[in-house]
Design brief:
Shape: globular
Largest sheet: 2 strands, antiparallel
Helix content: 40-55%
CATH architecture: Orthogonal Bundle
Strand content: 5-15%
Low-confidence stretches: none
Mean pLDDT: 90
Radius of gyration: 16 Å
CATH class: Mainly Alpha
CATH superfamily: lambda repressor-like DNA-binding domains
Strand order of the largest sheet: 1-2
Structural class: mainly alpha
Number of strands: 2
Length: 113
């Protein structure tokens, strides 16, 4: 099953109130609630485009795949790249614990990307 998960992208962008962010950026409250909670059954392409523009991401970044059958859960499956990862990295939490010299190193590396 493919589900929307904007939380991971928003948190990576320092947005910790997805609902508020979406409403502020023109989403109607009902739609913002469903998207924020990952309870969307269908999503208009214009909303996907708007989210990608606001979050500077690709559509694949907004979705995750949860295999319905264990046999499907393998690296050769076409949806494997968007597979839900329970051990996903929490970048803000990692950065918060780094000393300033390491943060400067990361900043320098990012400038060169």
């Amino acid at each position: 099953m493919i589900k929307i998960n904007v939380k991971k992208v928003m948190e990576a962008r320092g947005i910790f109130a997805p609902y508020k962010f979406m409403v502020k950026n023109g989403f109607i409250p009902t739609t913002a609630t469903k998207i924020a909670k990952g309870e969307v059954e269908y999503l208009r392409l214009e909303y996907i485009e708007k989210l990608c523009t606001l979050l500077n991401c690709l559509p694949n970044d907004l979705f995750e795949w949860i295999p319905s059958d264990k046999r499907e859960d393998n690296p050769k499956h076409p949806l494997y790249p968007i597979r839900k990862n329970e051990n996903s990295m929490n970048l803000p939490e990692i950065l918060k614990g780094l000393p300033m010299d390491k943060l400067r190193q990361i900043e320098d590396m990012l400038k060169n990307i």
